[in-house]
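Worked problem 6 (solution included).
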Amino acid sequence: MSNHDQCPSTTKGEKRQATKAELARVARHAGTVNGAPVWRSAEDLADTREFRDWIEREFPAGASELSRAEGEDDGSGESRRGFLKLMGASLALAGAASIPGCRQPDHKIMPYSRTVPEDIIPGKPLFYATSFPRPDGGAEGLLVETHEGRPTKIEGNPLHPVNNGKVSTWALASIMSLYDPDRLKNPVYKNPVRGQVSATWDDFRAWAKEHLAGYAANGGEGLAFVVGRAASLTRRAACASLAAKFPKATWVDYSATEDRASVLGTKIAFGRAMREVLNISKANTRVIVSLDRDFLTRERGELTNARGFAKSREVLEKNDSMSRLYAVESGFSITGGQADHRLALAPSRVAAFAVELAKRILPASGSPAGAEGLAGAIASMSVPAGEDLSGHSQTFLAECAKDLMEPNNRGKTLLVAGATQPPEVHALVAAMNAALGNVGVSVSYKALGADEAADSRAGIAGLASAIKSGAVRTVVCVGANPVYDAPGETGFAEAFAKAESVTLSVEMTETAMASTWMLNAATYLESWGDTVADDGTVAPVQPMIAPLYEPALSELEFLTLLAKDDAGAKVDGYDIVREHWRTTFNQSAADFEKSWRRILHDGVVPNSARAAETPKADYAAIGAALAGLKIGAAPTKESLEAAFVVGHLHDGRYANVGWLQELPETGTRVVWDNPVLMSPKTAEALGVSPAGWSRDDDMSGIYTKPKYPTARVIEMALGGRTIKAAAWILPGMPDNTLLCTLGYGREHAGRVGDGVGFNMYGVLPASGARAVGGVKVTKTDGEHMIASTQNHWSMNDRASIVRGVDLPAWNKHADHVQKAVDTFYANQDKVKELNFAESLGELGHTPPNLSLYSNPFNRTPADPDPKAMKPGNPQGPAYQKNTGPEFASRPQWAMTIDQTTCNGCGNCTIACQAENNIPVVGKKEVAKGREMTWIRVDRYFTGDMDKPEAMLHQPVACVHCENAPCEVVCPVNATVHGPEGLNYMTYNRCIGTRYCANNCPYKVRRFNFFDYGVTKFNGDYYFKEFLDDAGGAVPGQEGITGSGAYNKLNPNLIPPRLRQKLDQISRMQKNPDVTVRSRGVMEKCTYCVQRINAARIDTKLQGMDHIPEGYFQSACQQACPSDAITFGDSLDESSRVRKTREHARSYSLLGYLNTRPRTSHMVRVMNPNPALCSAERKASWEDPFHHGGGHEGGQDEHAKPDGHAFRFDGQKKREDRGYALSLNVLSRSHA
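Solution. The predicted structure is:
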C-alpha cells in the first residue's frame, strides 16, 4: 500500500530496530472487565504493522486514490492517467451537452403570502398523529413532522403504549418510501403485443368490470388473492367482504418472514394459536434465557422489549438490582451482545440445549399437576453428545438451570425461543415458563386471528401448484411480492407467469413487473386506515399529504373496490374507516364526531387494548409432540447448518431505502450487502477466508493487501437448489454454521436496491423453516468486494475508550474517589477528583497534562476567572462580584450515553440522518471510509477471536469539546465555539482543508468529497453509455457504487454539471431547517442546533427564563428505544443530564487529552454468574483499577518507579524520527 499520505520528512532514512518489548505488543485492555482485550475485527486483534499503518493514515483510506500514477495501478482500473482520460472525454462531452453556465433562470414567481393556509406558519413545523403498520405485524403510533404540508420526519407518539415517544428503524426510514423516485406512479398494463404500456385507473376499472364478472358469477372459482398481512380492523372487514363476494376463491394471507414455529408451538402448548407478549421489567425479570431469539430488535415487540430490558439493567445506585441474561444463539445478535453469558451453538444444538435444560427444570421446579408425564418424556429423550455440549457448555447449562430455579426468582424469570427453533422447542419453552411461574408475570399470551394464524408458506406453495394445474387462472396480489420472496422450492415465480395477474404496490417489485396489471398504491402517509398494536390498542392512520401520484388507491380502498359489485364505484378511505368505526364502537352521531376528533388528535383510541391471557399448558400434548422431535448431531463442514434471519431490509421491501442499505449490520458492520456469515475456523476449513487473510500469517491482510476488503464467492446448495453468495467471517459464531440474511438480491426495486446482495430465498425450503441442515458449500474462483465500517474512524490507542465493569465490582467500589494529578474536566464541580469511571482509565496512572495553549473557554464553575470582575451579574448572589467563566451562564448543553442500556440498534443513526439531511454515498464510497453519518455506533469484541466473551457498543458523535482541537487548526474560522458550549460549523466559510478532521481525536467529522446531497444517487449522466464503454468497468466489480444494476463507473467521478440532479420529489423530504451541504464542506453533529434555536424562540415568546427540562429532545435521544441517550442543560441542577454527568459511572472519552468533551459516556455494567467467571475475572472485582503492565502506551514495558508513564506508539516511534525525537524530550521532562 502506498504511504504517500504521510509526510516524507519524518520517514526517510534507516529505521531503527524495534526492541523486544516493542515487538511483544500486548492488546489494549484498560477499562474493561478482567482486562480482556478490546478489538473491532480480526485484523485489529492481530495488530500488525501493516494494519496499524492502514488505520493511522493521515487521510481516510482511498482518499488519495485519484493521484495514483499509472504505474502504480493496483488492478482497480482507476490510475491517475486513466482518470484523466475519462475526464478528458467528460469535458469534451460537457461542451457538446450545451449546458448553460451562469445564466439565471427566467421564471415568474408568486409570493407565498397570498395563499398561506390559516393553520400554517411559514418556517414552523406541524405535527400530526398517525400509525405505522409494521411489516412483521402489529403497529406503532407516530407523530409526523410536516413543513408546509410535506412530511419530513417520523417520530414516536408518546401517547401510544407501544412507542412511548420512541420509534423503530423501519418506521423512521419509511418516509423514504413516500419520496422514492422509483415508486410506481401510474397503472401499467402488459399488452400481449406491445408489452408494458402506461394506462389509467379508468382503464383498469373497465378491465376489472369485465374480467371479474365471470368470477362473481361462479363464486370466485379460479380466482386467488395474495394479501400481505397487516393488523387493521377496517382492512380485515374489507377482506371479509371480498371473501364473501368470492367464497370459492383461494385466499393467502402472506408473510414472507413469518415465524411459523412459534404459532405451531403455541398450538401444541395451549391448543390454539397464540402470540407471546413479553413483560420485561426490573420487578418482573431477574433472569432471562434466550434460545436463539433476538428479542431486542427486528421483531414486532422490539420497542417494548428494549425499553423493559433497559429498565431491568439500569444501575444508578450502589447495590441496585439488575437482571441477568443468558443467550444461546447461532449468530451474534444484538441480544447476544447484551448477554452476561453467551453460548454459540448451531440451531439444532440450541434445541438440544433446550431439552437438556428442561431435564433439569421440570422435575425439580415443583411442576403443576400433569407436568410429571412431560418430565418423564423429556427424561427419556436422547440428545446426541458432542463437543459443543460438553465441558464449559455443561457448566453453562447447569448454572443457567440453577439461576432459573432459584427460590427468590420464582415467577421472575423468562425463557424465549426464536424462529430458528422447531415448534416442539417453542412448546417446551412455554411449559418451562409455566412450571417456573412466569406466565402472567413476565410473559402472557394473546390469541391470534385467523389471518395471523394462517400458514402463508403452505398457502403460497399450494397456490403455485393450483396455477400450474390450471385450477387458478387469475391472481390478485395486494401488498405482497411472492415472485421475489416465495421459497425457491415452491417454483412460484415460474407458475405466476402462466396466470392473469393484478398487483397493487407502492414500490416497484418483481411481482409487479411480472403482472398483467401493475397498479400504483398510496403509502400509509397518504392514506386513511387504522392499525391494531400488539397489546390490542387501535390507532388511526391519517394522511399527511395527498397522494403524490394521483390517482392512487390505498390497499384498503382497493380491497373495498374489488368487493363492490360495480368496479367503477368511487371509494374513499375516509368514509370507509369512519363507517366501520361508527358501527364497531356503537356510538351516536354526536358522540362519534367528538371521539373521532379526539382520536385523530391523540393518535390512539383510548382504552382499546385487550387484556392478555394466561392459558394453561397442555403438558400431555407437549410430551406427545416432543416424541417426534429428532435432534441430530452437531453439523460438520460436509453437512453444514444454515439459519435465515431478518436484516435491516426486512423481507426486501426496504431494499430501495438507502438509509437502511448504509446502516451497518450487527457484528460485521457490513453495509450494502448480505454475505453468508461463518466462523473464522469454518471459513478456513472450507478455504473461503477473505482475500489476504491468514490466521498464521497476517490477519490484517483483509484491509492492507487488497485495495478493498474482498470476500470469496461460494456456491451454497440445499435440496437441489443452489445460489452463489459472498462468504464473510463473524467472530463468535458456532463452527459449521452459516448465517444468511434475507431481503437482498432484488432485481426490480429501483436504482438504490437493484442488484445489491444475494437472494437467499432461492434456497429457503418450502416449509418456511428458518434453520436447515445438510447444506453444502463449494468454493468458486469469484471474488466480491465488501464494504465494512468495523475499522473506520478508529480512535488512536483504544486503551480505555469503551469501559465495562462487573456488578460485584461496581457494588464494592461505586463510591471510589481518588485524587487527580491533573486539573481534568471530569465533573463540573469536582475537577480535582476522579470518580469510579475515570479511575478505570488513564487518568489514574498518567502525569499531568502540560498545555501550551490557554483556551478562554476552559474555565468551569469550579474554576472561575479571577480577572473577570464585573458587577451586576444576573446569575445570583454568588456571582455579583465575579461574572464567572464563559460557560457558567445557562444554558450549557451536554449529553450522556449509557453503554449499559445501549444495545447498538442504530436507531440514533437513522434519526440523525433524517433530521439533518445526511446523504447516502454508496458502497464504494463507504469502502473508502467516506460514509457521512454523524453518529456512529462502534462495535468492539472482547476476548478471543473464535470465542469472544462479549460484544460492546458505543455510540460516538461530535462530543463538542470545550478545548476543541479542530477549532485551533481551521485557517478560516469555519469551526468555532459558541457561548452555550456548542462547537459550531459554518458551512459557507469552510474551504475543505480537512485540517479539523485530521486533528479530531474522535474521528467524527465528515467531509463531502462529492456532491452527495444535491445529485441523484446512482442517477444518470449525459452520454452515460458512451462513458461506461470508454471508461471500461473493472471485471467483477460492476456496480460497486452501491447498486449492481447501474453505473459501471463511479458516477462521483463524472463532472457535477453532467450528472442528474436530485429530483423534486426527493428534495421534498429534506428538513428545511438544516442546510444541505455541498462538495468540499466539512460537517458533523450539531447537537440538533436547529431544535435548540426553535426551543429558544418558543420559550422567549412564552416569557420563560430558561428552556425547561424535556422541552425538546435531540433526534438521537428521541429515537433511542432504551433511553440510553440523555441531552439537556448541564447547569440545570434538576436535569437528568446534570445528574448523569456527575454520576460515578460517567467518564469522558479520551479525557486525558484535556479536550473537555460535553458528551460523556457511562461505563457498561454486566451481571455475570460468579460460577461461570474465571478466577482472574473474579479477582478483578477486588481491584478493578489495576491493569498491570505499566501503561506505557500499551507496550509491554514497565512504568517508571513513580508509577506514571507517558503514552507512545511503538511502531510510530520506530518509523517517524520526529516522533521519536519528541519522545526523548518528553521522557527527560518526566524523568
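Discussion: The longest strand covers residues 771-785.
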